[in-house]
Queue: 4 jobs
Job 1
Amino acid sequence: MISYDEIQKLPTEGNWIIATGPLTSGARAEAIQKETGAEALAFFDAIAPIVYAESVNMDVAWMQSRYDKGETEAEQTAYLNCPMTKDQYEAFIDALLAADKTEFKEGETAGYFDGCLPIEVMAERGRETLRNGPMKPVGLSYPHAPDIKPWAVVPLRRDNKLGTLFNIVGFQPKMKYGAQKTVFNMIPGLENAEFARLGGIHRNTFINSPTLLDHEMRLRSKPHIRFAGQITGVEGYVESAAMGLLAGRMAVAELTGQTLDAVPNTTAMGALVTHITGGAEAKTFQPMNVNFGLFPPLEGAKTGRRNRKDRYKAYTDRAKADWQAWLAPQAVAAE
């Protein structure tokens, strides 16, 4: 049976896949929010840029949480810090203000920026705003030169459990992509940084999947409902379609009594589904494209820009082999 009527409430029985996308209707969004909680559904992306940890210059940057907060060493070194001198800070502010930016249409950001301003808007409020906000140089010691106190510090926070990705804290930009690379590469320690994702702010609707979905993309509180596509917090047409295909395959396996092995997290689809169902940091969860930072590191692989091409080929070769191995028993079952 096919129905084109709007389903405004979450179904109470049967098996369902919700794939309503970034422009989920108000009634459906309200039903999801009622089930998952007010903090588990977002209506805007406030995406800070994400860099590959291996591309950060650690001769300049260092790991430390402000005031060494935390009980464990991991907590006390949860942030990666990039220092700036006064001249570097002033040049950064000048570049930030002059950069080519995207202008929002009327109503696109209504009621949104109270708690999360674009970095350019903060800079426009005064040249010292960022230095007294996300770039405040307090509670930190500079191990590379203990006698020097940085004028400003750009903090980056680990974005996944693997520790391969770091997001630039508080740096949600309005800048166009080309301008972002130019301006953010001015940050000491990020001069050669490679970006897994650039930043932006736009209308979207997505759930906090790491807290809500199990490893088979089922809603923990209502396992007869799966979520798929962009509403799960993936970014991009290919990624959204891939999560839809996986959700469908998982649903079929469950309905037919099959045992479906977990998709290898060494593959693109497996790495992405692992990320949204628990691999991402739930507190900072934002939509993500598939990228090599989501893959488990290769054992014994050399890092650095010169080795990147060989390393990425090794990632791909491993993914192909693991993907074929995952498909093999399913092909036999289908016969």
Job 2
Amino acid sequence: MIDDWAFYAAETYPSATFYNLSPTPSNNGKLSRSAALPEAPNNHQQVQYNSTLDKFPFPRDTFEAVVLRFPPASSDAVFRNLIAEGKRVLKPAGYLEMSILDLDMMNMGNRARRAVRSLKVKISVADPSISLASAADTVLRMVGKRGFHDIKSCKVGVPVASTVSGGSKATGNSDSEEKDISLAEMMKDESSVGDAGITKMVARVGRWWYLRCYELAILPDGDTSRSIFADTALLRECEKWNTSFKLLVCHAQKPVVPRRRTASV
């Protein structure tokens, strides 16, 4: 559902064809981008998809893989539809791949608990149909009921705030004072500085995904400065408690032989 991932995946794997479903309008198979950005590669197709309750605009048994990445807060009906449609358009033995971020976090302190509780209230007021239960558990249960097999899953803790020596700067809000170092360069650095840099980058990405999944829709005018993570005290608490986001990474395979439905006599 996120435009950029499909764009860069298409660049990385030029022999595969990627179809990206997004509210972004189609543009003759090319993703509408500003003139300052490169055009989408030839193996990338942008397909407008306005409602997650609609059928996917593809025939049955079309794809080798369907990828569901960081879906926003949704109702159970939306999750059921996405999983059902994913299975429909998959070829037999094709894989459904998922990355699901939960609303609740692990090891929350009092400030984080209050912030998440307030966020749940705002989400419920904005749309009472949205499920506030664990999205990861909900999706795993639905995938099993839908008849997928070879379900492999891993739950990962993504740090909310980085741990860097130096006290208050551990929250990762002083980006402008730091050098622009790539993840590849950090991974080559085997010192504690390299580890701290990776943790900080991962935490920043985690907060961005949490914002996209759970906060953006209910923030007034989409004002990200009102995110719960704009609270420096909350980030300090998360650093102290080692608070982490709960991320599910999972894949499941569509059976080669459909499950038969039999009736008792």
Job 3
Amino acid sequence: MASPVPVIDDVSFDDLMNDPYPIYARARKMGSVVRVAAANIALVTRFDDIVEIERDPETYSSVNPASLVNKVMGHTLMRKDGADHAAERKAMEPALRPGTATRCWAPKFEAICDELIEAMRPSGEADLFDAFAAPMAARGLDALLGFGGVDWRRLAHWSQSLMDGAGNYSGDPAIAREAAQSAREIEETIARMLPQHRAAPNDSVLSAMVQAGQPIEQIHANIKVAVGGGLNEPRDAILTLVLGLLENLDQLAAVKADPALWGPAFEEAVRWISPIGMYPRRVARPVTLGGADLEQDQQIGLCVAAANHDPARFADPSRFDILRPKQSHLAFGAGAHFCAGTWVARVMVSKLAVPRLFERLPNLRIADPAGVRIRGWVFRGPTALPVAWDR
């Protein structure tokens, strides 16, 4: 017989932000769908359940009028299915293809990476969050989108406030106001840049959308989505991969000895600490999932960070292990909504940014283990990573 959705009501929001994985493990044992009161949403935490959901968009829909993403960013492709989603994704794809990532974006990313490393190298120490990962991701995204040189700190602020707004399940009005202000500033930047992209087509995302004839409302909405996930995901992947290798020196030695391991190391990093840990779906019709009754229009969260630690899928899942047997993860989602920027992130992080850090900064090491900070649950990654190297 089906049963009501069980509830975890004895953990705080700070518990989720500080370390959600014990909560996820508890939820997986309780059932396929478990409401976490502090998050104000029912979470799906098992790998196979999320795969099943992503294969059935008619039952578990991305179309969600009540979505916080819609409120913060507009009606984006992330909250659409079928032909509408496919058309908007296709408009952006020319800028995000593997060939474009290698031909066009890799040289730009390489120049940014080398400039940042050279700027910090004489000091012998830095917090990699502000000194490298955040400006690397932000400046790369500025080029990719075709924003024309927005200051990286401003772009990082936009990204963080949009992500905070999209994850504002507690309804904090200050977070909502800040997200709305960033959304307006992004629209102003788009208005400033569109004439240039119309006059001179190029490889950027904005240019691709203009050439595809996308209406301005869709350009606004989908660029905001790209500002969010397109910055925090590579930033956090850079930091997570560096952290994982510096905490496991045998694996660092292995990847230095065999550069072919950089790709698997990147995939393991985003499995280990998934930058985008949860995204919502709307139950479009009554259904029973894993013995739990779900009502029509109920909101559920697909917790891919939890699924990527599911012991039914991954052995010793809390361990960072670049040599684990190859197995697909859900850090980039699944199905039709698989992250369109995956190839660009792979080029930036595993082919350029992290390998170059270890090549150019001799004896790179964690300077203060107590100073390492990791935070978040909807979006999670290192927020402080103090390192040192030999000058």
Job 4
Amino acid sequence: MPLDTGAPEVSAAASPTVVRVGAHLTLYITATFDDGVEVNLREPLDLGPAFEVRRRVSEDRRTTDGRTTREWQLDVMPWELGDLAIAPIAVTFTAFGRAGQVQTNAVPMKITGDLGDTVEDPKDMRGLALPIGLWARDWFWIWAATAAGAVAGVVIVALWVHRRRRRRTQRLVGGAIARPLRVDMTAERALERLLAIERSGVLDRDADRKAGYADMVEVMREYLGARYRIAIHDLTSSELLARLAGVAPLDEVDERSESGGSGPTGSAGGEGGRRLLIDGVTGWLESCDLVKYGGLRASPAEAGKVLDDARVLIVATSQPHAATVSAQEAA
């Protein structure tokens, strides 16, 4: 049987046929064929440089005479001006074990420009010009200056925070220590409370001075309990000291013992440092108990000295290897 007997009937049409350059049009390709025949578009599908196929879909439907019609819908964009034509498109098919192809008709098109009716002839358009160099803004130095400014800002803020914290520490110790060390939050809270006692004037008034001593003792007891994790509730001073002797860290030693010098802790090491810590706290508490319970009438200057000794103990015990210093200064 001749191959032409099973060849499909093909055609092509476009809508619209007049379109602006860069716009969209739809190209319709139809093929009508009998049962037992397979049809498809030739691949790759190329409409030439003037047209670009963006996407395509296909659909089959049965005709009244029992045949099948396959329709392809192609989304096409034109890129050249003038009276053009979409070239015939090859449709391949297989029939009776043999393969062949047929072509659609050409589709005439008119592609207009975006300049409107003033320019209809492509020959009237200006020709291509040579490329020209363009200036590009260099942002490197701007970014570098911004980064340098950011670093400088961070440094300035860090210095400001450091100076403010140092001034705050100097304010809390109230001149009791010439060069106060940096203190932690536990010590800072205790120093704040001592500063409040000092500013209240309770230590300057004879009638209220004993109450001021009681307030200082309470501050010191709560500080030691928080510093060394001791439950101070209902503990007497002697019981507090006994508990403190068992939990004070051994690394709080005299600086002279670390450098190998002589002194009360030169050979005892950490145990000597712990002993001086206990002795310093013991001496401070005893001086307060003489006013609270012993009937000793302290002067405003003596009360101020006791408050400064409390500050020295707090600042020293908040630093590693400094407990002995506090004990010696408070003694």
